[in-house]
Design brief:
Its EC number is 3.1.2.2. The protein has 12 helices and 8 strands. With about 290 residues, the chain is of the alpha/beta class. It binds 2-acetamido-2-deoxy-beta-D-glucopyranose.
Length: about 290
């Protein structure tokens, strides 16, 4: 009798894994800058192969040149999208954002104080800002990091997504004055939305931050973990930065509740996080259940 029950339970368990519907939560994927959903199809296929039955939403908003549009304009639409997908799956969803997409997704999640995102995966995203221009040379061939603030910290510069998270360690006054995006979602500038930005963050069951020292695009690469340069270009670990010690957006709350996962993986270039099979298997799949 006992053995039969055991077999029955085992059968039920394997059925639910095979059918997928009970076992795996839906995954929403957001692509990076100057690309679109097609850049994420290898990752989608891997998820579908390793976790059959998973419903994957590969968001097609703001692809190609549109990915340079103002950050808030993009976040507003990503927020509505996550809200709609979330309503279709009351059991909860997983969101994975790659590069700029991870920063926009984070802001969208923070802008939804009642979301049902269980796990958010930030895949090599400039969460603490960016101070490097290699990825911009396609659009601005002569742009140098040292002088880029003149472009980005202006009304015109803020019309671009990058202007919203350009974080020049030598020009922090201008950053605070002009940047309309990163200082807001990091609650460095307090607004009427700051409380709900924190609520949206602490509502997560799991925050997974993935990045590594050979990324070559995210600068400093530790920005993928909320760490950032000080004015001497020394990287201050996230847990020593004011936004963390003050718990201004709830990252400390998440860490104290064991909900913050920091993944450091060397020898992965920025363009490989979502296109290399071994990397996907090692750093993404474990968090998709
Ligand atoms: C707060 O959020 C709403 C909705 O996204 C937005 O319309 C408004 O401008 C924001 N307020 C501030 C002060 O940022």
């Amino acid at each position: 009798m006992r053995l039969q029950l055991h077999i029955l339970l085992a059968t039920l368990a394997s059925c639910s894994i095979l059918s997928g519907t009970l076992a795996y939560k839906p995954v929403v994927i957001l692509h990076g800058i100057l690309s679109g959903p097609e850049s994420m199809t290898f990752l989608v296929r891997e998820i579908e192969k390793l976790h059959p039955g998973t419903v994957v939403y590969n968001c097609d908003k703001f692809s190609g040149w549109y990915s340079l549009e103002n950050a808030w304009r993009q976040v507003d639409q990503v927020r509505d999208y996550l809200n709609e997908v979330g309503k279709l799956h009351p059991e909860g969803i997983i969101v994975l954002g790659y590069s700029q997409g991870g920063l926009l997704a984070r802001a969208a999640i923070q802008s939804l104080p009642n979301h049902n995102v269980k796990t958010f995966i930030s895949l090599s995203s400039p969460q603490a800002g960016q101070y490097g221009t290699s990825f911009l040379h396609l659009i601005f061939p002569d742009l140098a990091a040292k002088t880029a603030f003149e472009l980005f910290y202006s009304r015109v510069g803020q019309h671009t997504s990058v202007g919203g998270y350009w974080n020049d360690p030598h020009e922090q006054d201008l950053y605070m004055k002009y940047s309309e995006f990163l200082p807001l979602i990091n609650n460095e500038k307090v607004t009427s939305n700051s409380t709900s930005f924190k609520m949206g963050m602490v509502r997560l069951d799991k925050l997974v931050m993935i990045g590594g020292p050979n990324d070559d695009v995210i600068t400093p690469w530790q920005s993928s973990h909320f760490s950032y340069y000080d004015e001497n270009l020394d990287v201050i670990p996230f847990y020593q930065r004011k936004f963390f010690t003050d718990d201004s957006i709830g990252i400390r709350t998440l860490q104290e509740a064991d909900k913050l996962i920091i993944v450091v993986k060397p020898h992965v270039h920025h363009l490989a996080w979502h296109t290399r099979q071994d990397v996907i298997h090692e750093v993404i799949m474990p968090y998709l259940d």
